[in-house]
From TrEMBL:
GO molecular function annotations of the record: ATP binding; metal ion binding
Species, as recorded: Kribbella antibiotica
Chain ranges of the ATP-grasp domain: 124-319
Segment forming the signal sequence: none
Keywords: ATP-binding, Nucleotide-binding
Entry-linked InterPro entries: ATP-grasp (IPR011761)
Alphabetized SUPFAM superfamilies for the sequence: Glutathione synthetase ATP-binding domain-like
Protein name: ATP-grasp domain-containing protein
Amino acid sequence: MTVRFGTFDAETWWRPDDLAELPSVGGHDPAVDSMDELLLGFCAPNDLLITRYPIHPDLLDPRIRHISVDDPGPGPIERYISPELVRDEPVAPYAILPDTSRLLGASVPPSEVVALVNSKTWSNELVIELGLPGAGRVVRSTDELVEAVTALDFRALVKDPYGVSGRALLEITTPGVLRAVERVLRKSNLRVELLVQEKLPKQHDFSGHLHLRQDGTAEFLGLQQMTNKGFRHLGSHRPPPALVDEGWYADSLAGVTDALTKAGYWGPVGVDAMILPDGTVVPVLEINARQSLGLLTLHLEQRTDLTAHLWQLELNIAPGKGITDVLTAFDGLLSTGDRPGVQVLNGSTLAAPGGRVYLAIFCRPDDLGQWQRHSVAAVGSAGLTLRGMTTDAA
């Protein structure tokens, strides 16, 4: 048995309080608090899943034990988990936060180490040290930011060191946008630490996933090709063999695993990468020293001989409707495990005006578009509407 739990906006709790924020940083998204139910996808029979909120019974596998915490307040779920629930049991948290370290002690890496290696500042310094393509420049003042963006002739991406999935990332293409960012940073009077990268002509996004053991040895788990809308993650799936040689890519991460081990980290690792139109592989864009949605897709695929595709729908929800209506919409399309179909992975707290629902689509690789169209038609026939989504392959 393994105990699973976690906080999906881990980057918020790694980010130092004294850092200035980019204008694109929004407020807290309440939907993120309930994304921990996606950890069901990692669970094996007899595992215990602890979530912030109750999970709708129709989403639960009866072979998996589940409890939700009592009266959760603000902050990470780890603050509200009883130590008795995790005592003497293997534990697989989504990410290591300060509250995770207090709960689990020396059985997990120190939270300050985890925060360090998840920083884009740390991963960029490693890219430079290893001589890899795609390195950016870390700027530590507003004047340095202006200089770096101008030197790139306004083909610049500016990233918060703890931004995730397009949050806290700005594309600065004009002097006017740069002046607006400059005003916000100077007004804040807070410490500046940002990564400035040239916006490269990306052809494909992908990620490599591995498990790093405490002795420094690593098990490479596989690749995932990602579909993004702008800079926002929409889904992932197994890439075609021609995209990148998996063995070569696994070998190319030796310097990354060595550096993580030297820093004192062990556990799940996801490395975001990309391929340029000329075939150049940028092997390390950033490092996620935690579990991830790409890793979730790999776990889902272990259950079937089909290909697992993680796909996200953003739905408008009318008052009085919720996850029951979504499940009803997919009646007849739901996966049986051995035949193609759809599994709804989350949505217990779905309510008006709407929110995100993640689907696992199990099918042959060439049939993904067909199953996505079936899914869109199904939610439409149930009176649910999509919010700015497309049926592009994920």
